Model the fold of this input.
Amino acid sequence: MKLSRALTEAKILYPMKSTEKQAAIQELVDFATTCYGEIITDPAGLTEDILVRERVKSTGIGNGIAITHAETTTVSKVVIVFGLSKSGIAFDSMDGKPVHFLFLIAAPPTKRVKYLSLLAGISRLFHHQDLRVAMKNAQSAAEAYQIIQKSEEG
Done:
């Protein structure tokens, strides 16, 4: 699945203000709640489900990327938002470095295939250093979205 189909410019938070993991997750949950409204049936429960997942193992996968996620009953459809941090977020990443690109994905158990497809698509796309460099230089949500679209075309 193309990331640009699930993610729109309006679902990109730029710039993120948080510099610590838990605050950044809460910032993205709040943003997702604004973007998705009633699809998120329990924002506090969503935050807790994400934090429970993070306690199992950090979703900071390295290279400045974290894909925080949960399969949860607190959403009625798949939810995805993306935040960009210029200063970086202390996130307990595998490589010990700050996170600059933070995704939040939540899906009900009935949408597991789409959920896993999004996780794989993000990992594939952000594996490319050229994309990460371009994204780090993005000056707006619109520019970040255009970078994603262009990367998926080529």
Notes: The two ends are 15 Å apart (CA to CA).
